[in-house]
Amino acid sequence: MATDTTTRIGQTTLKNPIIAGPAEHLIEAAGIRNAIRSGVGAVAIKSANEVDAAKDQLERSEYTLFDEHWRPIPWNPQAPRAATLACRSGMSPLPFEPWLDQAVRMDREARDHDCLLIPSLILGEIGPAVEMARQVEQAGLRVLEFNVGVPYGSQTKKGNVATELSPDRLGGFVAAMRAAVSIPVWVKTTGQSERVPQLAGSAFDNGADAVIMAGRLLGFVPDVETLAPVFGTSLGIGGFWNLPITCQWLAMTRKAIGPDKPLIGINGAQTGLDVARMMLAGASAVEIASPVMVYGFELLQRAVAEFSEYLDRKGLAARDLIGVAGDQHKTFMQVDRRPGNWRNYVPADALGT
Ligand SMILES: Cc1cc2nc3c(=O)[nH]c(=O)nc-3n(C[C@H](O)[C@H](O)[C@H](O)COP(=O)(O)O)c2cc1C
User: Fold this and answer.
1) What residue owns the CA closest to ligand 1's atom 10?
2) Across all residues in the chain, what is the average pLDDT?
3) How far apart are CA 63 and CA 35, in angstroms?
4) Domain for residue 184, yes or no?
5) 68: domain CATH number?
6) Global confidence as pTM
7) Is residue 124 lining ligand 1, measured as CB closer than 6 Å?
């Protein structure tokens, strides 16, 4: 019997837990189509909001990859998997109406491939966000991603995009969205907080159907030749190294709010095994976003194939993975003592009286 790769996020079933996450490669129809055809369970398209200044931000975007010496390296599929991606980005350049029309057209294509097309709204002001969400629902789209945790909130004008750090305020935004639409609302929260589990808890308390965690961190990279900051400002940074941080949030959130609340992992996944890792930590599905900008849509195809091969090899269904490692998490007081173990991890000439 073929492996069961399906997963459930509340009332929504996906043919597999791999979701193409939003970034610049999912602005135009060609990219969205390629993501749908890669075989992923869902595609979340580049976000819209109502703020012209946030759209204009896209025209100020800059992108680079760094190697482990913080030297810029070419942006192409030969880049090493360990590269760090740094950028400033903005909203979809499309005005809302054509953005929605395109989403509806792409949703039809997605249905033909048993794929879920996910429109994504980024919080600017809650009034217009709610109004856009109503139109998303009226247009027949099946679920909504609502991003209240964009990395750049502190770097741009108030009201352009939100990096919501207060569980109470986040709850208020989610409640307003919940009151406005009846389709599932998946809330994407920031990682720039020590309170990710509380942010997620508040989202669920106020009617979210899933929480996507966690948005990227900000970084600042001085250039030792020019003495200036790379691209002049703070950058959203990400890379493979973010996977353990995402898994930490998934496991701790599952522990804090219970196993029945669907979590979606994002930030640092590149492969099918990375998807398995985030699911073992507690995710019901996993988004892969920026690596596709560098390595192409084949990366999604490879992730789908590798994930399915992994399930075959382990004789497991996708849903068997959710939270298995997270639920074995121990506190430091519960792990075995290892007297003197630290001595094996310092230079030899660090030992001795
Ligand atoms: C260039 C770029 C553009 C992005 N645009 C969006 C966006 O429009 N909406 C959104 O919710 N997230 C956006 N993100 C965030 C990604 O969806 C994702 O949360 C983040 O990159 C971490 O996941 P990854 O390691 O798979 O890239 C963007 C990220 C990058 C790098």
Assistant:
1) 22
2) 94
3) 21
4) yes
5) 3.20.20.70
6) 0.96
7) no
